[in-house]
């Protein structure tokens, strides 16, 4: 899975695994979702994402296609939920007790950070 070059290749691999082995167990589904998150994060110039029960953080590379204004608007609209720590670390304080909540929160946040094409 780690060798999948893009989302389409990963989805093809997932379909092939289902064809061969049947429905995927939850840990395997989670692995697919994690790999998709890594691919998306890489496209956004994100070095690392951490998520836990109380929230998480995103570490950006020096060069990122993410519009800084998007991050600033998030912080201004919800200062108790989002904040910067240093030049490249973005923290989000969101309760995420269950793994499903973590996936959903991080996926939604990455989607918000993805630059929109005209």
Automatic annotation (TrEMBL):
InterPro entries recorded: TRCF-like_C_D7, TRCF_C
A Gene Ontology biological process term: DNA repair
One Pfam family this sequence matches: TRCF
Stretches assigned to the Transcription-repair-coupling factor C-terminal domain: 1-76
Superkingdom of this protein's organism: Bacteria
Protein name according to UniProt: Transcription-repair coupling factor
Organism of origin: Pseudomonas savastanoi pv. glycinea str. race 4
